């Protein structure tokens, strides 16, 4: 097991501190490139990145797999200036050591998947070997928390408001809900262009925080009737299909089976999560991509193939259902100077 020690620090030094922690216990070096940790093949693969999104606010994205157990040990600091808020989509059960006290987090439960802690507190958790890790961590300065959470306002409903204002060492957990899962997955799965990275993540992070702070005001809680593991399975299936839009859309029965549920159950949960049917959701996605390619003056047959239609006439019919004109007319209008 690799025991990786690090500190809760600012955006500018967080990745460097984690890399130093890895390099202190591994012969193969972890390096930093383009805001990401690059792991040697013997340690792991995937994304471990960090982006500055606002003054006093950064986002860490973990979508990676380690090839041996990694025990992450966050050392307690002398000052409480930095805070961390993590959103855990990983589906394994784990023991989190919080200042010497062990707490069980059930991988198949909505409970305790959001974890908040301040720099004066220690923290330890283990990423098991060969298990995909999907976590978003927000790094927040104390000043950002006080100002943006509006802690000095009497009507603020932030959990542990008094302790946050008093700068007390603090650790607490919150339950995940459906909207939080979907927003966290969007942050993990999205790959915005370099020029748009900061603005993109800033928007999603602020939506995520606003949702968590505001959710007690809402009465609808679909997660009360949805199993957490079913939701994660569908989120992963959706991402796999989105990554391969050039392929024919898999049959609903096959996708449902891969998610370990019946077709009717899959269809109902998918619509509850994304407000559209399975077919409608992905056909719209494919047609929107096709429209972008037509704007680039692609040939109709090439566009059809690039979004998984083997039959050009079928593609033309579906495209016309969405845009009310055939793809050829759409391309002519879009490319007219």
From TrEMBL:
GO terms for molecular function: DNA-binding transcription factor activity; sequence-specific DNA binding. It comes from the Bacteria. Keywords: DNA-binding, Transcription, Transcription regulation. Transmembrane segments: none annotated. Residues 235-333 form the HTH araC/xylS-type domain. PANTHER family: ARAC-FAMILY TRANSCRIPTIONAL REGULATOR, HTH-TYPE TRANSCRIPTIONAL REGULATOR EXSA. This is AraC-type DNA-binding protein.
């Amino acid at each position: 097991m690799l025991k990786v020690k690090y500190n809760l620090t600012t955006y500018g030094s967080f990745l460097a501190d984690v890399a130093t922690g890895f390099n202190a216990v591994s012969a193969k070096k972890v390096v930093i490139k383009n805001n990401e940790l690059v792991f040697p093949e013997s340690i792991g693969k995937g994304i471990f990145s960090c982006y500055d999104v606002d003054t006093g606010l950064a986002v860490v994205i973990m979508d990676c797999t380690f090839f041996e157990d990694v025990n992450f040990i966050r050392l307690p600091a002398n000052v409480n200036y930095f805070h961390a808020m993590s959103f855990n989509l990983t589906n394994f059960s784990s023991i989190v050591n919080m200042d010497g006290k062990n707490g069980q987090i059930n991988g198949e439960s909505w409970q305790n998947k959001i974890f908040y802690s301040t720099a004066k507190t220690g923290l330890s958790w283990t990423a098991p070997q060969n298990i995909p890790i999907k976590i978003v961590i927000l790094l927040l300065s104390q000043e950002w928390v006080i100002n943006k959470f509006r802690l000095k306002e009497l009507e603020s409903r932030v959990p542990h408001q008094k302790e946050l204002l008093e700068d007390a060492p603090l650790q607490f957990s919150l339950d995940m809900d459906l909207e939080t899962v979907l927003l966290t997955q969007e942050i993990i799965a999205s790959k915005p262009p370099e020029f748009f990275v900061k603005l993109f993540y800033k928007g999603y992070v602020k939506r995520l925080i606003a949702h968590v702070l505001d959710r007690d005001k809402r009465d609808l809680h679909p997660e009360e009737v949805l199993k957490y593991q079913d939701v994660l399975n569908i989120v992963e299936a959706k991402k796999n299909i989105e990554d391969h839009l050039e392929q024919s859309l898999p049959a609903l029965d096959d996708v449902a089976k891969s998610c370990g549920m019946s077709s009717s159950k899959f269809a109902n949960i998918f619509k509850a999560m994304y407000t559209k049917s399975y077919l409608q959701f992905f056909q719209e996605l494919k047609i929107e991509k096709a429209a972008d390619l037509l704007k680039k003056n692609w040939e109709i047959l090439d566009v059809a193939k690039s979004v998984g239609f083997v039959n050009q006439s079928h593609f033309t019919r579906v495209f016309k259902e969405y845009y009310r004109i055939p793809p050829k007319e759409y391309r002519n209008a879009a490319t007219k100077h």
